[in-house]
Each structure stands twice: as structure tokens, then as C-alpha cells.
Amino acid sequence: MPERVEQIQQHTVFAGPVFALVDEQIRLANGTTVHHLTVQHPGAVVIIPRQADGTLLVIRQYRHSVRQTLLEFPAGTRHPGEVPLECAKREIAEEVGHVAYIWESVGEFHPAPGFCNEVQYGFVATDLQPCEATRDADELIEVLSMHSAQVEQAIRDGTMTDGKSIALYLRAKLRGLV
Question: What is the pLDDT along the chain (178 residues), one digit of tens a residue?
Fold first, then answer.
């Protein structure tokens, strides 16, 4: 049951090229007035590229915010007005150097709903063909091919800690797509 929330005041604290930080004063259904900070984000996609032999393309990518190289599935931020599937097609080409001719949506994810309005759209991509990868300047990426059992072991042993990749893999697995 959705709560009735009244917005009293809103102020943009920071607006950058990718996201904004908004401070809102809101009145909750119980009458309490609180401040709530929200990171406003344009949304993102995350993709499991599945090759003809059943192996999955994963990437090792340096993520400066956590000062680590993470094992994850290809992903990327949507451009303003960009349809999620078009973003996914762009990102798979940029990050793993493939185009896919069959796309299966596995739905939406909310990675941090306590403070961020980002929605991530998950896809499984098949019928892959190589193309030239055109990565962004800050993308230090190594592409790997892994069997599902290897991905599951990486999740189990903590080698794969990226939440969006783990959530996507689980949903795809439960739907019989990997």
C-alpha cells in the first residue's frame, strides 16, 4: 500500500553530468516532517552476453569509487531519453566488442532505493557476433568467458561482489536463461 507523502520543499544540492543530489523536506502519512536526500540518476542497464557454447562474457573493470577491479557483467548508464534496450546494445558493443541479435529482458532492479532513484534494466543477450569495442577513456576492461558454474563459484566465494551482476544472474538463472 503506497504511503501518502507531501513534498513541502525541494532543493538541488548538486547537479553533475551523470547524477544530481536533491534535498527534500517531506511530510509523511503519519504527519512527521523529515528531510530526505535522493541521488537522482538517469538509470542503467546490465547485460549477460551468452555465447553459442553457453559460456557467459564477464568483465574485469577497475572501479575507482571502491578502489578495486571488480568482476561483473557489462553495464552502463543511460543517456538522457535513451531507451533501455538501445543503451544495452550500445554498452555490449563498447565493453565486450559484440553485437547481439536476440535480447531477453529480465526486468528492473532498484540497486539502492534508500537514497537513489536509479532503475537498472537487465537483459540476456544471445546470438552474438564480434564487433569493434569502442570503450570510454575511463574504462579499463578485460573480457573473460566463464561457464555458469564458474560465475556461481565467483558469487559463492566473493570473487564477484557487484550487486547488479549478482541480481541479474540470479533472476536469469531462475528464468532458465543461463
Answer: 357 899 999 999 999 999 999 999 999 999 999 999 999 999 999 999 999 999 999 999 999 999 999 999 999 999 999 999 999 999 999 999 999 999 999 999 999 999 999 999 999 999 999 998 887 777 789 999 999 999 999 999 999 999 999 999 999 999 999 9
Catalogue all structural domains in the chain, each as residue range(s) with its CATH number.
Answer: 6-40 (no CATH), 44-174 (3.90.79.10)
Q: Following DSSP, what letter does each residue of 88-126 receive, concatenated?
A: HHHHHHHHHSEEEEEEEEEEEE-S-TTTB---EEEEEEE
CB 129 within 8 A of CB 101: yes
Of the candidates 22, 27, 24, which has an alpha carbon nearest to the alpha carbon of residue 6?
Answer: 27
| CB contact set of 129 (below 8 Å; sequence gap of 6+) | 98, 99, 100, 101
pTM above 0.90, yes or no: yes
Distances (CA, A) of 131 to 72, 128, 165: 20, 9, 23
